[in-house]
Records
---
Amino acid sequence: MRLWKAMLAVGILLLSSTAFVATAPSAQALDNGVGRTPPMGWNSWNTFFCNINESLIRGMADSIVSSGMRDAGYEYVVVDDCWMNPNRDSSGNLQGDPTRFPSGMKALGDYIHGKGLKFGIYGAPLDRTCAQYFGSYPGATGSQGHEAQDARQFAAWGVDYLKYDWCSPSGTINDQVTTFARMRDALAATGRPILYSINSNSIHSKTGPQRNWGDVANIWRTTEDIQLVWNTNQVNDYPMGIQNIINVNVPLAGYARPGGFNDPDMMEVGRGTLTDTEQRSHFAMWAIMAAPLIAGNDIRNMTAATQTILKNPRLIAINQDTLGLQGVQVAGDANQRVLAKRLANGDVAVALFNQSGATRTISTTAEAVGKTGASSYSLVDAWTGATTTTSGTISASVPSHGTVVYRVSGGTTAEPPVPASNSLVSTSSGRCLDVPNSNTANNTQPVIWDCNGAANQRWTASGQTLQSLGRCLDAPVGAAPGAKVTIWDCSGGANQQWTFQANGTVRANQSGLCLDVYNNQTANNTPIVLWTCTGAANQQWTRR
């Protein structure tokens, strides 16, 4: 669903360390029996927008089967916005548009099921869908006040997947959690296993990256809508290209697990504009990030190149691995990223992603991605299937915007590389480093506050950056003692790199100054500054 410019951006996290720490996500994944691996399927929006009807959807289901997409794992056929009659019936029930879907939605679901596929449908939690909000489709058929009724209707039609799209500037993130949970519970009450997909970002501040939504939904959108471009230089704002979305989604790896996955939006593979190299990177990065693989192209007329990408069995196997882990960045800078994803059989999938404008050699080691204890390791190229061996170096010449993926076997495998998310507790006060009022605007100055475990007190230490609410802890360039510490869009700069020292202090790598509770005060709302490192109690922090 196309989303318009919104109010809040979420930063890029560029890492520079090969260390990794295991930690549990803060929310448990939704235990509704579905989404144990990222869903795979097709959605009507990217190619057809509102121009959908019964014949089109049935024909697409036919093509998913005849093209071999179903056998490759693509099972959900998701009918996006504009399927509904603009008016509910006299009992308040949703209806299919009688002109577009004359046989009705249950008949459509039956047809899809008859092809060995699953039926997905679109809804909205407030009064209107996105198309209705923007006046491109009539009516106001959102589920607000009809959650239980609509859930029962979906179940009666045989729906297997609900895409639920916020589409309003109103509501706090807590309002969103409450509202999305209302449909979660209504779906559960039907007794039918329905995969629950939510998007909190539509026409709204970008709340998707601000919490682990795994307690609410099976998959949750993390970014603005995907567009058919590589890079628009947006942080998390409309329009979003492939590169921009990767920048936002990579740091959220700790949230993914069976039953709950970050959703960087539907794929643009096979829709033109992107080069073959960029389309391969798009698919490879979605696979390594344990993202839903929801195709958005016209399945009926795919080129051989498109089919080669979308049906790649080695990348699909990496994506569908039963551990349900998202690949974690173990090294990287503005030009490149190295991601590692531990797999159920002990292998590790490694992606070497070239973000730069020229071919470059990208290298890592078996040890850096969690493999040890062997004199040699087997590398299977996920694109070619070719097998090579290495004593430890993992390296490739990668074209601009390209991604090389290896499946690494041999030796023993460490715990999965997951960024550590902790509270930072000031020794002098016992209070936590806090983003005041969860204000994610650039230049917001952190303070100390009573520890409460909320997201605005959780700091993800990935490489040498510290991130909260999608922003990075930032020290001004050329900082002197007393300089204000802030949160800012993540840039990968040295002024956003920090070192935890043995005496409990946290040192800014660029300036050499330490995080300091201003003037050794201990009251709530005391600001955080930089100061010459002394090791005093107001400069000591404990991670918990």
---
Amino acid sequence: MRLWGRAAAVRRRMLCLWLMLLGLALVMLALSDLLNRDRENGYQNPGPPRRPLQRIPSPPELEVIVDSRDPALELGVDLTPLKSLQEDQLLFVPSTQDTKNPPQRKQNYKVLLPGSVKDITGARSLTHGEMGRAVHLNLGGFQRDMEQTAVHKYGFNEVVSERISLHRKLPEARHPECLEEQYSESLPSASVVICFHDEAWSTLLRTVHSVLDTAPKQYLQEVLLVDDLSQQGHLKTVLSEYVSHLDGVRLIRSTRRLGVGGCRTLGAARAAGEVLVFMDSHCECQKGWLEPLLERVAQDRTKVVSPIMDVIDWQTFQYNATQWPVRGVFDWRLDFHWESNPQLQDKNPEMAVQPVQTPALGGGVMAIDRHFFQSVGVYDPGMLLWGVEQIELSIRVWSCGGSMEVVPCSRVAHLSRRHLPYHFPDQDLLQRNKIRVADTWMDAYRKIFYRRDTLAHFIRQSESPNITERLRLKRSLGCRNFHWFLSTVYPQLYIPQDRSSLSGELYNVGTGSCADYPSGQGLQGGAMSITPCSGTGSQHCDLNSEGEVRWGPMGDLCLDIKGDRVVSSPCPAHRPTSSTLQWKFIKLSGQIVHQQSQLCVEAVKERGLLQSSPQGIRMNLSKGGLFLRQCTHHPRQQWHFEQLVAPKGA
């Protein structure tokens, strides 16, 4: 009886186990069918996309914005375009609800993970622990794939962005005195113009809500979203529906690709505010950012102003405050960057809240009087897509009666992008934009640009830009020349002498390579290297009459020494030049002699090569570069300057 009872108990346990396995299998099949049905319904009826501010449940359900697959852009037929924009038909989406009641999320959109539950259970029955670990590993791998795809597509980690609230508040970074500033109650109204082309949903909407959440209603006339012919589905009907629920937001669509300048000009033509605030589509605003900008423009309608541009990390979306004071500058290759000099504030504490004049402004955020913008010639319509349009506008504003400032009590954070080649416009298009700037505004100084950008030089040799209208505008406005700009606005920019046979690529006979300075080492200088000659002008250097060998597109790095190694270091801002920075070139022998030590520059290309230092100490070099050696007739001490181009007027 006992044996029979034990056998019956075992059979009952086995039966229960089989019933549990059968029930689990049925649940899995039902869940799989439900997920498939949700996915099919989602593609047929997308509805509004998800709101990133909603938390992801645990275990995480990865959600995606579903492509609405609209057949084409919706076009308005009852609107008369401006004369200068006759090829563009526009769509205005009116607002119907208050900003405080944004559209609610009606439906979740889920994506089936690769390696579904069926795949996990197909080989054998798993324990709950094994299944949990398998799902965790599967989700982790899919998460990494999603992030890599997002970075490749947008240049930043959109998966992280989707998890951040559309209404997140940035930490306070303004100087305490800014919090006590008082502004006029009769400030001009502002139209914030946000142009976008295939922008990610989360960053675009976070930009819009950031403006709405931080700009005082009495000063914010409107937010104009200008779609520069986006192709992604979430920016079509889905965006139109979303914007229709936002008070004070209008959506304008162009039926042809305009680029940054043309898109902003289109928005400006339809703006109603007295001041135009151009803003990139991936920004977040600090509280109190708008009033200081409007105050400066109200005081002088020819001022063009920018906030301090803080940085949002492309990978983590962490906010990083920029050190003040900062200003916008550009180099002889017409590349823009922000230049920070915190030491100036230490010398003058009053600078903490005072605007600083700047030679140029970036394109991230910029405020300008609407009538002044029109009178000074808007953006150059000949600019292609994007690139250097902000430099062209900066030179034009300064030369034609205006000025530019960075306002420290205004802060806006701008999302940095990972520098990948496919996120930049075609190189030829960028060079053509630079050619327009050089030929229109730089006068005889343009030869300095062409020597440092040989691709632009050769494009210019084969075709000439049509700048007739811009030159006519320049004359009609009575604009000053580029020499005035350099001497008055940007005297800190070193003007290369580019003397014949004493400038160009520094070619070494013994190695067949050129002296180079890796750009990744930064503006503070570092060890010089020997690399293949680029032929692009990026290795251009200039031996001037002061004995300095100036390096870089701004000419702000000088050849220096550190021990027996040749390095680059920041050039002195004031004369006289230090004796450690003085060199002479002997044309007959091709030697470059350090005047203080009377040693010659020698190129070392190989790694691990034993050499003797000037002090007689043998050393093992871990890598090649430029070194000081006793002068000999060795080919590695023979140099000559190769000028790659010789533009007319040189």
---
Amino acid sequence: MTLIAIQDLYQTTAIACFTVDDERRRILFSTNYGGSYDVWELCLDSLETNRFTFSNQHSSSLFTYDGSVLATFDRDGDEYYQWHRVMDDGQIIPLSEDENGSTAYFASFTSQGHIYYSTNHLNPLINVMRYDAVLGTKTLVQKGEAAPIVCAAVAPDESSYVYTESYSNTHVPAYCMVDGVSQPMIPGAIGPYSTQDVLYDGGDRIYFLTDYGEDFHYLASYKPSTGLFQKELSIEGENMKGLCKVQDELILTTEKGVRDHLHRYFPEEGNCTRIDAPCDTFNQLKATSDGTLLLLGSSAHASDAIYRLSLDGRWECLTPYRVKNKRVKPVAVEYPSFDGLTIEGILYRPDEPNGVTILWPHGGPQKSERLKDRPLLQYLALNGYTIFAPNFRGSIGYGASFMKRVEGDWGVGPRLDCVAGMDWLIAEGLAEKGRIAVMGGSYGGYMSLLLSGRHPEYFCGTVDIFGISDLISYVEAAPETLKPLIVNLVGDPVGQREKLVAESPITYVEDMAGPMLVIHGKNDARVRPEESERIVGRLRERGIPVQYILLEDEGHSFSKHDNEVRVYQEIKHFLDTLL
């Protein structure tokens, strides 16, 4: 077998987000191309790229107006994103020193140079603020009172705006604020439903995606002047996730299981056609002022890239990315779970299997494993490991009813879906009981620990990355802004204490399969490092071999190549000892 070095997979880039600067004919994008995250610029005419900032920090949102560049940055993965002005020399200056230590959430931008953004500064239920890029002033727009709010879109003349209230990931109603009066976008709506990707088409028509009354998100419209809500378009079996306006047409992105799709829709004619896409999963969609469509996405065998759609229907890759080595192309598979529910998963099959299979439960849990770039999984698959990633109940892309199955059930249904997946692997000859390693991050780390304690007979080792060991301490330590959502998802540590104890991995530490590798970021604001330290301490008391890596300059993910390379090498070394 030809072994692959991790550095060979890092001839590629990860791109977090991008924006278009039409005035200067350039794209600004947040990427780790230089070894850690910074903002880079790409000239749309010459396709030359240059590093624009030198802060070594991750940006989650970018905005340009009249030559000014504004961007959010956190600090070494702590996810306390704050708006900064980027100077011509690359220096970044905070827009508001008093918001230091708070988090700036979703933002909407206007042609007048205003940023409408949400922040938990002084209010855990979030306030909507408006920042004027010309005057350098900020104004309070709305206070969150019933639930965390974000400004989803603003009318071109700023006469109205749309905001959402988040009660859970599957209950996000939307409202239109006109002259200080709030109107529900779906009048008379009853029961939980969600709203996403809001787009003004002129001043009196608003397009948005919702799953109200349906299992999948569809395209709907709302008219502020009349209060009329109307269902516009649905695509059977596909969940709409994004939209963008290009001249007189809408470009829609949908997800169906592990893949995304692109569609072109003409509202006046009612015609909808599919567009061939250059990759399998999409992160962001934008258009330039002349109507050129830009897409950020990746595939399991190709890393993040920004693509441009030409007039002849061909996609051109604009950003530098290289795949030096052959990649393992995973396939989508299905299997029946313990109660007959069909579960889809992704399977990586190496050319020369080494005898150990890795079960990879994804994070979220209301996310899913998809056909996107996963350097760690590629690295391990190219070195002989069979990898199986099940999209257990609660995963997105399979409808709202499937997604809601994990709410209040973190540790039973999804766990048994994973067990059924392992039994399927064994029956198919793809795994051997006792020769499976379980590995995951965040919720996937929690599930890895829980499976190790509840079903140790399947496993030869465990890798926990940023995982949760105790649901009670996890909920109690949650930020006040997120606590209502987390309680809805996980459970109430007071009223449901017995249930949370039963679903906490630390309850089963006496039965856990060893050895174990535990990894955490010191600046993790979502899952505190204490969650890993607690389980590591208990394992060591039992005499179970456990290695603990605490990353001093990371949070709930990896933002620096050096850390990522180090961790992935440690994971492979750990797994190699199980062979």
